[in-house]
Amino acid sequence: MKLWPFKVISDANDKPMILVNYNYEVKHFYAEEITSMVLTKMQEIAEAYLGSKVKDAVITVPAYFNDSQRRATKDAGTIAGLNVMRIINEPTAAAIAYGLDMKDCDSGSGRRNVFVFDLGGGTFDVSLLTIDKQDIQVKAIAGDTHLGGEDFDNRMMDYFVKEFRRKYKMDLIGNSKALGKLRIACEKAKRALSCVNTLETTIEVDSLHEGIDFYSSISRAKFEELNKDHFDRCMKLVEECLKDAKMDKCDVDDVVLVGGSTRIPKLQQLLKNFFNGKDLCKCINPDEAIAYGAAVMASKLSDECNENIQGLSVKEVTPLSLGLQTNGGIMKTIIPRNTLIPIKMENVFTTHFDNQTNILIHVYEGERQTTTHNNLLGMFVMQIPPAPRGVPQIRVCFEIDDEGILHVSATERSKTISEKVIIINDKGRLSREEIERMISEAEKYKARDEEYRKKIEARNALENHAYNIRDAINHHEISSRLSLEDKKKINNAIDYALKRLEVNVDAEQGDFDSMRKVLSSVFDQVIVKMINGKDNGVPDQDTVSGTSSDNGSRKKRLLLILGKFALQAVYSAITGNIIGFVSIIIDSVSS
Asked: How far apart are CA 541 and CA 103, in angstroms?
């Protein structure tokens, strides 16, 4: 966390919050809110491409995401205003993409065991799946939600932070801008070292800290040494996944690479060696496969499903064991990990003391035998009639849906009472009121962002317009037809507009639009007079010759020159002062 360019704090309930500078204010956001902003941006991109509104979505998550993380992701979709049709695991989405690709080659026939190695920017998953035509069944998954490409970057950053400290007796820790620059440089270096023929690369960061230009180099061998434990961790999880699936590595037909970090040569070498020299499958784009698979699933769940995927069947497994805390803090597993979902399982419990009137039920996930080392998902208190120890019969039911989200209920049965309780207050999960507040704030930020976008576009339009006009009047054919007085008038207007841009950095959209119109009016007045051949103090040979065809040809030629500088488009699309130019364009075309 010390290398992150932002700060993370805890709220009153020990839930992490991210500190962000927004509009010169320090804002506090939950992870769900940040995720919702990313989803909103993706929604905007999709809508711009499709030309229609997008409300439904399939969201992918790392296979090893626990129940709390899956619920939080779904909450983020709600905050973004999306109807989350399904949460699916990333390796499964990649397997869908791979399964469809297999149909186009000889390997598409018959049952195949496919191992998906998914190493992205922040998480790592491995999955073993069986693909039989359109039936995809997950056999086992393993992973680490705290291991990804950024961890390789962090090792390089640590290395260069120490080098900078050693060389210049200065510490970069605490300088978020310097760390941001260094992170970008380290990521570029990692990408360079991932190229087959690159064994060494350089790090170059201008003015990294207190004006110091930092230059260094790193070899692929050093990079691999710095990250040896990360590579070992990856391979350990590969072995764990195969062990859970009760499958020998010789029975794996294909090894599919997903995620940008799988381009690292050392990882490819380790995988190939582990699978006895088997060629790694690179037939699908590691950056796009997951999104492609999610789109296919979305198509299946919607009315847009075509016949190629109508029969698609996907069966996932739960990544972690789920159970209850029993007497002494011991974990009683109800649903073991790697159980096919959806699933519904139950168990019967009783009391430990005479005449108990309530029972506290703790729900955990994890693989440790003691609950103190597992993740608490939620708890609830259930009222029961007093009875001797061991008499009450409390049936607890665990149900996992298609998205891997857990629903728990408990029923106490006696001659007088039948009660059912469902967990509603999950540990660390946002309440309904918090989600509604965040939805409202997301709309507010969306409106602010739209205003900011329009302001920046107006600012850029003014700046571009000013430079386009300057380029136009400096063109030899335009310049030769303008008097010194007219050139000075236009240049003064340009200088004034650019000065206002420099001084009024926080001006609003309307201010920039007004400045652009002022600049346009000055330019229009001079340029229209020039095109029409009116007296501007400079003899015009075409006008002197006097023929209407010559005048029409001259107008058309000048308009074409102005068109090179996008001035006609600017006038017609942006400014309100267009009457003169529209008439000129019409005249020139008709002539």
From this structure: 72
